[in-house]
Amino acid sequence: MCANLAAPVSRARSLLFVPATKPERFTKALDSGADCIVIDLEDAVADSRKDSARAQLLHHLPQLTPVQLTRTVVRVNAVGTPWHEADIALLRAWAGQGVTVMCPKAEAAEALRGVAQRLGAAARIVALIESLAGLDAADALAHEPQVARLAFGHLDFQLDLGMHATTEEPELALARNALVAASRRARLPAPIDGVTTDTGNAERLAIDARRARAFGFGGKLCIHPAQVAGVNETLGHTKAEQAWARRVLEEAATHGGEAFSLDGRMVDLPVIRAAEVIVAACETNATRRPI
């Protein structure tokens, strides 16, 4: 139950991966319109280049502005791998400056707690669930105090279970529902769905993003800048929804906390809270412009 719900990662719709070995792309990714970027030390980096990738990251993080740092997530190598401890040691100072850490293969609350302790009290963690063990532990992971959000690594999840999901992925419905439910029980922001691998297929991306929203996900991982706008549009709020939310809050201010009717529908506290979420999200995203 992360305390800093105002952090960009907590409200991010689009999170764009960029390899740590391509530091020249960091600023371009931040300027792409993505709410957050995910600098990848894990899958995007060959074992032989792990140390050099970490060194490149250390060199380039100081070049980012304070606001850019708050929009930066770093996916480290998993707990138990030969590179994990060095990744965490590097990021300890940066976690205090707003950088979020994504922990892949998240399966045990105790392991995440250890990562949080080494990163420091200000650190935020995205727990990336990629296995049956991770799904079984989803509630415990979500309740770790420094976990800001859950994310679904649906490709590795299929590998773990020997699954071959069809195009519409109904086979993954149970897992998606479980992550949304775990996030809600822990009062976390809505979780982050996995990538769409067909980077040139806008229709596929739109279908995947709509499915994510239908399940209750609030964000989606992207692997190409061309995917960002579509994800932001689908997982954001329409102009009509924004206008409705502002009207609700304006009317609520005149009713002193009492229920009232708007356009023939009752508005009570849960509806007002929903309107507040929409307005806050839109205001946050409006300030998240390329720097």
Automatic annotation (TrEMBL):
Residues 13-225 form the HpcH/HpaI aldolase/citrate lyase domain. Pfam families: HpcH_HpaI. It is an enzyme of class 4 (lyase). Mg(2+) binds at E130, D156. Its cofactor is Mg(2+). Its EC number is 4.1.3.6. This is Citrate (Pro-3S)-lyase. It comes from Paraburkholderia atlantica. The lineage of its organism: Bacteria, Pseudomonadati, Pseudomonadota, Betaproteobacteria, Burkholderiales.
